[in-house]
## 1
Amino acid sequence: MSELATSPAIGDENPVSSASAPAEPRPKQLSQWGEIRHRFVQNKLAVVGLFIIAALFLTAAFGEMLAPFDPAAQDLENTLASPNGTHWMGTDALGRDMFSRLIAGTRVAMFVGLASIFFAVLIGVALGAIAGYFAGFADTLVMRIADVFLAFPLMIGAVVIILVTGRGITPVIISLAIFSWATVSRLLRSSILSVREMDYVHAAKALGASGWRIVRTHILPNSMTAVLVYATFNVGTTIVGVAALSFLGAGVPVDVPEWGNMLAAGQGFIGVNDYLWVFPSLFVVVTVLGFAFVGDGLRDALDPKLR
Amino acid sequence: MAELTKNATEREPILQVRNLVKHFPLTQGILFKKQVGAVKAVDGVSFDLYQGETLGIVGESGCGKSTVAKLLMNLERATAGEVFYKGQDISKLSGRALKAVRRNIQMVFQDPYTSLNPRMTVGDIIGEPYEIHPEVAPKGSRRQKVQELLDVVGLNPEYINRYPHQFSGGQRQRIGIARGLALQPEIIICDEPVSALDVSVQAQVINLMEKLQDEFNLSYLFIAHDLSIVRHISDRVGVMYLGKMAEIGTDAEIYEHPTHPYTQALLSAVPVPDPDAREGRERIILTGDVPSPANPPSGCRFRTRCWKAEEKCSVEEPLLAIPERFKGLQTLAAHESACHFAEEKAILAV
Amino acid sequence: MPRDNISKQDEGGGVTTSEILSVAETGGGSAVPLLEVDNLQVEFKTRDGVAKAVNGVSYSVSAGETLAVLGESGSGKSVTAQAIMGILDSPPGRVSGGEVRFHGKDILKMSDEERRKLRGNKMAMIFQDALSSLNPVYSVGDQLGEMFRVHRGASKKDAKLKAIELMDRVKIPAAKARVGDYPHQFSGGMRQRIMIAMALALEPDLIIADEPTTALDVTVQAQVMDLLAELQREMNMGLILITHDLGVVADVADKIAVMYAGRIVETAPVHEIYKRPSHPYTRGLLDSIPRLDQKGQELYAIKGLPPNLLRIPAGCAFSPRCPKAQDICRTEIPVLHPVTEQDGTELPGRGSACHFWKEQIHG
């Protein structure tokens, strides 16, 4: 039923009438970005996701102003306080304000999540483009290397790297990037392989376009969608990864206010002071959902055929 | 008048194809590939294309007709053989020299849904030839040129900022044709240009292509599987089977006096939208399927499905030539046919 | 002139297509036709609104008869078939009105369970793309045999024998040796034969073939069409052949229904439609296809595009593209009129949904 889904048929097939039909009302012109935006905002969940992400960014940027307390300040008189008027989300075993620590954790999560996805995409796109465009031996080589990285369980690989380098933000970013670029490469390669066989690429070749021009104007714009959507989705997943590493004691240093660290600290109080793990989990879940909603919305909005 | 000019220029081949061969290697192995065979997609095809004429190439899927198109466009490299454009072999060109030739030979693709980049506007698509060949049109004049082209192919020039998905299949095909015309080529290779379109829209596009041919004195190589459409648009027709040319001649020669059994079977199999014309026709129903081009039969490639096949056909490959028995005769049957036992058989009630 | 009872409402009154069509084939002799589609309506919900894919379609098929439903993409020909088979994608599709009587019983009112039992058993469908219709991970023998195991409770061994028998029947060479082969090991023509074998397995009363030969080469097309027609005759089945190809229709159909924008615009016994079409759309289609046996002049081209089903033009849906459209065509939906000779003699089986059918056929 694709015919049903096609856009308003434009004008007339008849050469005579279409060429001389200035009276025909022109539908509102939308730029490509305008159209993508239009489709994106039609997806309610995507808009919700966008708000979540915006809120996270603001929190990360202006954490100091938002936090009612210094996240590192201990108040040993007031440890393990349940949520109350002063400490909205209670205090931890050292009397630190949970809410302030969670806000501070947002910055760590967003920074590490975005940075590791950035590096993963950087490596993945470079290698995936080489594999997809040059095919042949380069393709085989890159894909076999990717297989090795995919075969290695992310958590174990990352833990090993961090055990060697020591805990810290940079090792976490690097280890997460190293173990996620392979998926990006595979995605990009497979979509390049299919785009490469599209007739518009042949048409550009037939016109005498250079290889670089073909890659830049035809292949990449049409194969990056999948990568972009994947990357958006995976910021959330990576943030979970950061938290998981910290929870396992292989993430950022214990004294850094980070959601995984807070979860780890809270696990001893399950059933006693549940707010200690409930609030950090909530932050993680909401963040993951936010990025997933936006990724979903992007996928629909970026597909020019979907209308 | 049109006839006169046609005749005057007709003796001038603009494109000569000689013994064109394309074998796609079949490989095995994961890291180190070794060749275990080859798909003989095109296996020694020769023909001429004259200025201002339409040469139709018909054949079933897998006969190699689309590969011929790709070879002529240099989208695939020929394994062997030559393609002469005005006397110059273009099949081995690359770089700047190839780019220069491309201005004169353009292509219209089959699928209007994949032949236009969905992320480019119509203006960018039709204007891309000028980006690649800036010498054809100075920057300031491009937009106007694109609008002129839209007008030429019967689309509203105001649609220049729209995206392909906002158009129907027939309109997209017009956009593809406009792109092909942008560099003012002499030859347009059309690979099944209307087969993806609805019947009522096919006629519009065919008429447009004929109009443009007259207007710009274009030579068309028109590749299609629909024999009726090929007859309608072509001056001469070549019939391909399994990588080889089986028969070639003028439209009357091929359609009214076919001498190759494959052509005869093909013609008899076409459903004619007229039950009365149907009744007078003899039907030849071929048995079996087209053999694999990776492993074609010895001798004549059609022999496995041919009702006339004899011992000789499996040993000796028939060459594309005017059959002995018709040589020097003033008959339409005297045209090139690659069959040991070529004989006339009227298939269509004329 | 029955023009006064034409109204803008959805073809309530007037003569239904099935009445016109059923006269033709039986000569009034037999009782209930095998399948009667009566004023069927199907809608699709899309992002931009409701698309009326089928707008009151009526036709009928008897045992041993072939009805060709001709139309372009978006005409509703396939959607009608899917609604009959009960395989409409829903949502977004929905049958919003009408009846489909099979052996006299309205199958639209049956439970899902009852309809499932009907499918494959009593009515079967053949699709255009045989490769995607067959499951690539099972051998064709398994897939053919499964029909007997599920519907007839046959043993594994019997099912295999039956599968071989069927493959023989659709003339697949060396059936015994190939019964264990997988779909990708067969050529396009052979796969379509397997699809036919599958449809015929349980000897259904009705076969719906949706563009069965469109994806095939001409020489193979002829083989497959011949086979289908032969088996249909042998088994005395009703056949609905859905196609866009006027040539294929001429070869095998008894009668024809031309669809445009979700309605039937013309019905006729097959021989007559080519000589004397009674609807401008049919005329246009016939004139716009090049002839194999004649080198014609410029082709006639129907101007414009098939309508967007979200915005079907008022009045006759063809009017914006029709060379003969008058004011009335843009305001009143024409119903399917019975077509008669100039002197009023009935032309059995013929109908035209054109306000000016008289001028079209006699003018």
Note: Residues 218-235 of chain C form the longest helix (18 residues).
## 2
Amino acid sequence: MEFAGLRPVVRLFRSPHFVKRLLAPLTSLRLTVTLLALGIAVVFFGTLAQTEDGLYVAQSRYFRSWFSTWSPHTPSLKWIIIPLPGGYLLGTALLVNLIAAHIARFKFSWKKSGILISHLGIIVLLVGQLATDMFARESRMSFAEGEWRNYSEDFQETELVFLSDTSDAAMQSVVAIPESLLKTGENFVLPVLPFTFKVRQWMPNSDPVFVPPMMAQTNAPQTSHGIGRVFTFTEVPVTRKMDDKNVPSALLEIASTNGTSLGTWAVSDWAGEPSLKFGAQRYWVRSFSGATSTGQMEEAMQQYFPMTRSIYSKLIEPQSITVDGRKYSFLLRPRRYYQPFSVQLLKTTHEVYAGTADGPGGEGIPKNFQSRVLVDHPTKGRREVDIYMNNPLRYEGLTFFQYQMGRDEVAASRGTSTFQVVKNPSWLTPYLGCVLVSLGLLVQFGIHLGAFLSKPRNAAASAAAAPASTSSTSRR
Amino acid sequence: MKRFLPLLIPALFAVWFFKDLAPATDRGFAYSRLGKVPILFKGRHQPLDSFARNSLVQIYERYAFYDATEKRSIPAIEWLAEAMFKTEASRDRRVFRIDHPDLISMLQLPMKDDARGFDGKHYSFNQILGGTNINTLQEQSSRAAARAEAQRDTFDQAVLRLGNALMLYNALLNTARPAGMTQLVPELNAFQQAVPRGTNAYDAARAKSSDEKADLQQDPVVRSVARFLYQRGDRSDKVPLILPPEGGAAWARFADRMLEFVGGNTLPQAAIYWARMGDAYAAGDTGLFNAALIEYERYCVTQLPKDVTKAERETFFNRMAPFYHALVIYIAAFLAALFFWFRFSETARQISTNLTVLALVIHMVGLVFRMWLEGRPPVTNLYSSAIFIGWGSVVLGLVLERFWRNAIGLAVGSMLGFVTLIIAHNLALEGDTMEMLRAVLDTNFWLATHVVIVTLGYASTYVAGFLAIVYVVRGFFTGGLDSATARALTRMVYGIVCFATLFSFVGTVLGGIWADQSWGRFWGWDPKENGALIIVLWNALILHARWGGLVKERGLMNLAIAGNVVTSWSWFGVNMLGIGLHSYGFMNGAFQVLAAFVGSQVLLIGLGSLPFKHWKSFKGTPAAAQS
């Protein structure tokens, strides 16, 4: 008798309409249309936002999110705030709507087979994009002709690495701590290291200021050891622009295992980006010489370049500490992803169309970028392969794309190349989804067209003659 | 008579088209032969005629200019010959188009004055530079250039456009000889003999003090070298390469090759031909000019037979002007279709059909000829996308007409035909429309699949939108839209939207796959990708709204009209943002046109949403009372 109260529930569950009733709001076409309209709004505002925020920020704010808001960039219109659903929310809702509609209304008929197939394709596309979002990883591999690489580098994240100095490379122990763990005030006690360290300050983006030796006597250096004695690192706001890069730095305090301080050090990623190298040196030459015009600058470069080069080499030097007679170096560098194989850059080819390379920009219209590489796998052997535009190398679950090309700064005859290295386990889903949707639409519209062609149509004569009042169609 | 009109009128247009195919006969200077001379510009092998036309169109906005004093139209190649060889006369040609009144007054240029032949719009090089305010122009130009693209107003744009035109013109003057030289042959001879001595003298001059430098200006060889150095200038990317490969050297600009020969070799044969042609032209000697030209032609045929053949084909294509002819015929076809609606004369519909077919054939000949010349699929840039969208729309329009025979397909097809060709003409004002493709685009497979399909998606979305415009305009402004036609229109729009969904979806996803192949990601939320996605979503929205009964006839029409806005945003709007990986299709000044178009579509949707009692059609129908 105690269960009597549940009868209506049981009855409800047994009712064949229960599932339908529960799903009804989720299955409606009205919801589909609303979601599509919202989707258009999100894509539109997400595109507009890219003009100011840059691709990366706009993408994470509008598409890789659950909710967002959009406001115009004009200061006087800032009060306009348009709330928007995020890409994740819309994608999930569309998926639920689609699946629910098919569960509730599923009834196979040839007449609707096309719709079924194309919706299946849409599901594959949506799920595939979600998987890409979760599992795909992009990194870059850059080297000069003749160099070998067995790792690619992240272009957002850095890592703090400790290396023990030994002549035998295989014996060298490496500890890599990802940037996400390096927070101001954090203490690290690692069993493989004979010392502990504390992050005194973590700077997600930084600026190194060179302190000339005579100034160092008046101002106390930033750290007791290493580059912090020559440079003062200051924190600067994080940049979100597409063509700008965050260069993190950190101040570390190292202590022996019994707790006595061994001193402070600074580590910085300023050596990470090769393009920064030349820029930094020009900047110093300019500030030392006060040169303004191009001509003055050229002369100043001659005079100051050796000096700025030595300053720069100090900046990129790994920091080191000797504990118990063993030397450890440490540095902050772009996060590395090691691969079980190595790649050697053999030759770079950079072609522009004849007669276009001598314009004011000197860039020319690019005709072809091509890198020839040697891939060496310990068990699968070695082979040579060309990587060029629209022809990536797919190898061991990774895809290598030709991304940039340049010249070595020291030896200009030596070409350099950068590959975008993508690991995306679900890269095939768009291909499958595209085939399914196309096939489904072709079948469905083919059926429509067949039905249309087999029916008589109103010819011009009847259209002209038909009086308007015979209409029985309802218009809205 | 009525029976023959549907054939007679298109036949007259066909005659007009074929008449222009006939080769021009040269009286005096052999300009048509000069036009076929092969050159290399921006990496593309082309006839001098194409270079002349693409230069003139950037300055004057037409392919031939009308000279008010001579009272005749001067073709681009004649204008170029004069600029290259007879610079003094050329500098007085009023070819620089200036539209902005503030710029005209700043440069103190004369206003419209018919008596003196001034139209208040076109000015000569001498008029522009003769004013006292040339420094002001330079100042304004660097000020405008420093501003961000989005911040420039119409005056800034006018200043930059003029600056660019002047720079381009200056490049023409220095294409075949140092600007303004009338006697190059003797100069070259002396130059060749004295080169070794001159090289030393020039080196010495560079090392010496400025007083002695001035002294050395008296030395004829130093002067020659200085001349070629000046001819080379610093904006050499605007100067074409006119000297073909010879003796192991590649294609070269005139000045570059002259300076290369300072090393003391014999002068290239081609340079001597060019010098002889120029000297004869400057002296007004047609016989000598034509003789030198024919000799150079023979030289080219033996040295570069492939370039000569290609140059000949392209000159033929330039003369054919298929898109201009098709544009005019589309207008005629559209007018005939309108006439059918008001008079319901089957003859008018027949005329319109035949004219549309004729224009489509000419349009297609142009399209295929371009593909053959370039060795590329039909769409490679914004210009060719306009040509192709027009072609696809007309085909769809004719298919619709084949089924319904109510002139609606004809009207929509021919209208889209001429609108897209006008857009193409305006895009061509930027210069060469067959420019070489950047490395990432250099793949015929993806150009033939993704680009063609997505462009057909644009075309069909526009066709659906324009069909809906027919519904609103005919229904609101005329009593001519009966319910049978309205039903037919509904089915047309629905069918075309299905078609558009298929093409825009497949095209967009193929684009994603191409991106996956070349950049390593299927979808990167790039503006152009997003624009295409919006079209797909919009078409899907229309279909679902229709299936769910959320919209009926009129709602469908309004949604389809909004499809025009969505497609225009993707086609041009996103390029105006000036960001993203696809921004190579950027164009200036089209923003106002786009805004006006969007405004007009919003207005049409507004009219389409008014209750039926305000419409001229559907009065007194039961449905009208309900809504």
Note: Chain A touches chain B through 79 residues (CB under 8 Å).
## 3
Amino acid sequence: MLKYSLRRLLIGAGMLLALSMLIFVMLRLTPGDPIDAYIDPNVPMSPSDLVELRATLGLDQPLPVQYLAWLQQALTGNLGYSIQRPDQAVLGLVVSRVGPTVLLMGTAIVIAIIAGIATGIVSAVRRNSLADISFSVLAVTGISSPPFLSGLVGLYLFSVYFNWMPSGGMLTPGREFSLLDLIHHLILPASLLALAQTALIMRYMRGSMLEVLNLDYVRTARAKGVSEFWVITKHALRNALLPVITLIGSTIGLAIGGAIFIESVFNWPGMGLLMVTAVENRDYPVIMGSTLVIGACVIVVNLMTDLAYAAVDPRIKVG
Amino acid sequence: MLARTSTSSPGPLARAFERFRLNHAAICGVAIIVPMFLAILTYPLWWGFKPNDIDLLAMNAGPSAKHWFGTDGVGRDIFARVMDGGRISLLVALTSTIISAIIGFLVGAMSALAGRWADAVTMRFVDLVMTLPPVIFLLVLASIAGTGIWPTVFVISLLSWPLLARMVRSRLLELRERDFVMAARGMGAGLPHLLFRHGLPNSIDILVVFATLQIANAILLEAGLSFLGLGIAPPAASWGNMLNAARSTAVLEQYPWQWLFPGGALVTAVLAINFIGDGLRDAFDPRAELN
Amino acid sequence: MKRVSRLTYAAALAAMMATSALPAFVVPAQAATLSGGFDVGPGGFQGNFNPLAATSGFTWLSVYYEPLVTYDEKLQKVVGLLASSYEVSDDQQTYTFKLADAKWHDGKPFTAKDASFTLELAKNAKTGSVLAARLTAISSVEATDDKTLVIKLSAPSASLLDTLTKVMMLPEHALTQIPADQLAKNSWWSAAPVGTGPFKFGRYVTDQYVELTANTDYRGGKPALEKVINRYFANPAAAIAALRAGEIQFTYVDSNDLNTFRDNKDFRIIEGNSFVVNYLGFNHDSSIWKDLRVRQAVMYAINRDAIIQSLYGGAAKPANCGYVADQVVPQDIEAYAYDPEKAKKLLEEAGWDKINGNKPITLLTYYTTPLAANVMAAVQAMLAQVGINVTPRAVDTPTYNSIVLNPTPDVAQFQMVYAGLQNGPDPSSINVGLNEKQIPPAGPNVVRARMPELTKALDTALGETDATKRDARYQDVCKVMNAELPWGTLWVANRYGVASAKLKDFVWTPAPGGGPYQAHPEKWSIAD
């Protein structure tokens, strides 16, 4: 097991190296560099003004030299400074974004699981009722709407029209931190982000519940005179949940994809927003840094999942 | 077709088709998407407005008998643009799906059938692409490729194939050790033979399901790219960049027809295609029974 | 499994509470706090704290920093701010500044040594200063006493004062220890910066907002507000939502989003000249624009009045040269009134069929707002009518700059641009975009205008040391532009901010780059 983990970690390190090269090359293929992003065409500076600025950033060096210089720093744990905001260290910028993103996505996933399972059960039990049909319609619309559109419409409805929710940000500016304030800012973006996953979980829950409700042991329980409520919550739900649980893992991908849009509409200070602005400004160090940090997380999580599977399931052998 | 299958013993494809036919949601999906397709393809024949004709005197007009879906900020007919945008959105979705299906299948099948070395190398590569954060991949790739139909197709295709490659590989890995493949190999069958005679028929169900669901995904991705200022650039219409008009609060609030109609078209199409995809998945699932 | 149902119940309850009960906790912002989206829109620069590196964002920076001199509220003349007065010698080469009696936020007095220290930093490109190239005319900076600063130039420069408005004074005692090349990376800028302005730095919450608190010792009087907050928005629609929800009291608003605020007594619309002239730039390195008649045809083919009326809601002035300000536009220039027949005739005379015919011409732009998309659509349709087939292509700013500033651009990618250039308050601003000496890589003459007559007119205007003759010189520039058409000039649009009606004495103007100008933040106040 130890040998296996070590080997996997070694491969992981190699992958990170390859990843950094890949993203480095991709970035240099992108038209425009950080200095180009700096110039406002309406209030232009002449390119010659910026020669020195480019030189200071080392952008005039040949590519392999630039890469090695970056790598040398990165190996000592120094991911450099943001170009767009030179007073911010990349590592600090990236790390400070992890919390808000995990909070937003975690909340969205929890909302999606709870709401998806609850509506799924109702739909299955009251099959073809008004509730079932309206849930189903909502679910399919939820899956099929682009997240930025639901974000914009949600923003308009709940913060401008009804004025129930703050229009963005994570905390009320100028006020001391309070949990309630955080929750108040969190609910709307998290719910909108949860929309697509809720819909997916609901549909699977409904299907698997319907299947289970027709199984013999559920019929037996009913025949024994167990009340319908207990039949559903105690007997059927347990088995119906199994396929849904495996699905939840795969919806995390949905959340990550939707997060860039929701974060940029609601100005949520997460990884998505950081990366979108970094790409817009060609902020190379920030892009490289966040790619590596995320890549490392993915590799470690994958390894842990595999180890956990092996620990739980005796049929799987690692090594 | 049906008449012939009923005389002989129905093959797996025919049985799948039969199962599909009995799936109400899937048939409903077909019933939505086919007329939509027809309308989009034929609209210049029966609709009087062109998608890029401006009319500054009739801008921001609501739906009427003349302009069914109203007009936009420079007086272009929204109906014509929804139709034309549908052409582009569906074109982007279809081509990118075909390309990513081909890449995904080839990479996955080669990985499974071309020996251990090829497997190790390709799978490491797939891992690498999948470790790259999708946001960065999407943004950087899109900035390199630029805007327009073909760059957008390129970006969406490159983003979508790794998942399929994995699914195809895991399906075909078990095939590798089966007798008939061993036999074919023993008789000196080349890689193309293995790929297309054995690999393809055995993963056709995965491909079909992937393709339908991916079309729906690609439509949404294109819309997302447009929102980020990439994707299809105006004044060419696509459902995604028409929706983008909702960024302006005036449009969102006062001229809702400018985003509701393309949004409705997009949601309906994605929905119908998802229904069909789910239907196909159930139809190919050997555990599902005809009742 | 009972747990699950209880959980769902609890969740439903929580969701209900969230939607119904929580609003009760929303307390209106304290009366003495002004929140705004000061860095929204074209003049803003979210996330930049370093005035030496600021290409824009001066509206916000000048709430806590101050330059020696600044523009007045109407952007018409340069007035003293940290300099209580200034004198220019007769040969235009010596500037003497008498400094005001000001104090830094940390209580130390502001002296001429601070001013000369700041100018040295600004002149030194190693600090990351974007002003360095514009200050090369300065040969020496000297603090003759605590309150007197003398700047000597190697040659007269008409734009020195304009550049000085963008040099925010920095405290020598706080920064002198930091090596020049480490200055930009120092965390001082966003952690504990010290200025002389009416508000002092409170805190920065990453990517969320910056909070300033009143500088009660401000020499212009104690500010009326206790706090000013600058909220960041990644999306302009969100800023408008926040304004309408009452969370902020001010933001920049795109002109096509103004409708919701018109006739609404809760809001005050602030209108101002953008000082940016929009134009269709012909790439003069491309053979298709060589014939003047083709360029004239483009002007006659576009119905600028209709675009201004319908898309800009009337809030733009058609431009027939680089300027629209009355004093620099001569009376007798061609107005290029909409005349598609004339355009067709001109194209026919020039032999457009042979020059280009119906081949698509890429029209490149970096404007990505919904308004710009509409303008491009209109321009495309109008040019198509006379037989010029353009394909708009909107790209992001770095891509645009990398294409147009490239010393050897790919002409096929870049035959025409839809762009803007600052044309005021100092009319010499457009020189860099048109003077032959400014062709990349030397400068940002992106259209590669090589017009000797125009270059001569610009050089003469720039070298004019007699202030009374300057307008006449720029009239000459206008006349040449109008006749030779280096650009297809379109219009100068107005820009807008919207402020809550509760704000009193709030001064804002959509200055290029955000200013600076005399905004008197110490007088801003907010009614309950």
Note: Chain A has two domains: 34-78, 90-312.
